[in-house]
Amino acid sequence: MGPSRVLRSLKFCGVERAPLGAPIGAVGRPVAKGLRRRLVPVGVAALLIVVPGCKADTCSGGQNMTNPRVVGEFSAAASPPTLRIGWDAGTKLGALLPDAYFEDVVVSWGGAGALIEEVSLSSERELTVVFSSLGEPLAERDELGFTLEFPDRAAHTSCAHGGMSDQYLLDVILHLDASGTLASADFTQRVLYGAY
User: Among 128, 142, 140, which Cα is nearest to 81's?
Assistant: First the structure.
């Protein structure tokens, strides 16, 4: 019996979904060739039964934001340290997202997310991120990284997709100088597609 082939990911409705690591046809021990030939069609039929109503994904097109950036100045020494993030309208469906969508932002746990006390939509296309005191956390590093999570678009637009809810993420890295003043910032947008 040759090496097992591994299914790296699934693609439903034109969207690649969560990776899988199980060997194709593996049942815990070697399977006779005749039995395998009978199991594979059963497995394919089961997939067709489980996913009969696969909806086309009309939600994931385009980015939530164009040109995300820091608005004004940011200093870790301020009391409290407050960061304003602005952006231009997104692309494709992202351009149609209402303010209520951006009001549902939450901070992802991890990185400097634990140092954030509040994040809110403060005006059209502008979020305000309020940190707790950053004096001690910045004593040993010169950058802050955190992720903002935005909800599935289906709740705020007329789009639809199969599977579980998607998450739209904005990764933020703030590079600070020796005085704690912002030197530069990096923004990266990502999508985590919900599993089927």
Answer: 128
